[in-house]
Amino acid sequence: MRHSILMTLCAAAIGLAACDDSGEAEVERALKDLNVVDETNLNDVMLTVGDPDEAVKYFAGANANDPGRIDLQRGLAKSLVRAGRASEAVPAWQQVIEHEKSESVDRVELADAYIRTNQWDQAAATLNTVPPTFETFKRYRLEAMVADSKQQWQKSDSFYETAVGLTTRPASVYNNWGYSKLTRGDYSGAERLFSDALRFNPSMFTAKNNMVLARGAQRQYTLPVVQMTQVERAQLLHTMALTAIKQNDLTIGKTLLAEAIETHPRFFEEASRALAALENNASN
Questions:
Q1: Are 161 and 170 in contact (CB under 8 A)?
Q2: Which of 9, 212, 216, 262 is the most exposed, fewest CB within 10 Å of its CB?
Q3: At residue 93, what are phi and psi to the nearest 5 degrees?
């Protein structure tokens, strides 16, 4: 497709050159526009399906060759986050928000990078610079997490509720909200939210494990009725056993560990080690 476009442009250039020198400039402009389109497509690919570390190299090189372009600066910052290099992403996002064309969304991304590096005060300060009229799912999810870090539970609940209403995939928000309730000691409330998370994403193992923790904290030592594989069942039984042992329900914990070992399709080292330690302590 591009070859045919180039042939057309070249043919046009030959015809224009015969009557006007401006034809060459027109062709150059057309080629430049074509290159911009191709580069934009490549940038999108690197940000979504490309290898994160390769994307970092790509955008770092692009920034060096063409400094000052905010789209390339954003690409580098996003790629650093995708590559799990949050500490490097912070200064990259700081550079983005210093650009004259930066937007509110860039400040939200900087706040996200701060949270990933446990810089909660900086995240809160950055979110405070975002206008209240900028209402997005990610903004409110981060606001909820910051409120959690300050134990501002009423604000946290309000932000989580707003975030849930701004996405069609709220499983991760429900899971975070449930964990917030778990840390507050609201175990039944946490269990309901983990159930909501699994309603939207039945395969989310973190929510399953968290639900078991919430049930165990209420001394409900039966697994919830949720979709699970045999390996997951064994792992959840192990989690519930440890919860029981922590609450000094040793006999129940021992039974659950034995069931976890029997359920697992392979050797379950962690559960076997925990059961051996429990039996050893009992004999002593």
A1: no
A2: 262
A3: -70, -30
Domains delineated in the chain: 40-102 (1.25.40), 103-164 (1.25.40), 169-227 (1.25.40), 229-284 (no CATH)
Q: What is the pTM of this model?
A: 0.80
Write phi, then psi, for 234 (nearest 5 degrees).
-65, -40
79 within 8 A of 46, measured Cβ to Cβ? yes
Smallest Cα–Cα separation from 52: which of 86, 11, 93, 14? 86
User: pLDDT, tens digit, for every residue of 164-201?
Assistant: 999 999 999 999 999 999 999 999 999 999 999 999 99
Name the 3-class secondary structure at 260. Answer: helix
Does residue 127 contact residue 135 with C-beta atoms inside 8 Å? no
Q: Quick one: three-class SS letters along 63-117?
A: HHHCCCCHHHHHHHHHHHHHCCCHHHHHHHHHHHHCCCCCCHHHHHHHHHHHHHC
Euclidean distance between CA atoms 256 and 62, whole angstroms: 56
Three-state secondary structure string covering 204-267: CHHHHHHHHHHHHHCCCCCCCCCCCCHHHHHHHHHHHHHHHHHCCCHHHHHHHHHHHHHHCCCC
The answer to whether the beta carbons of residues 130 and 108 sit under 8 Å apart is yes
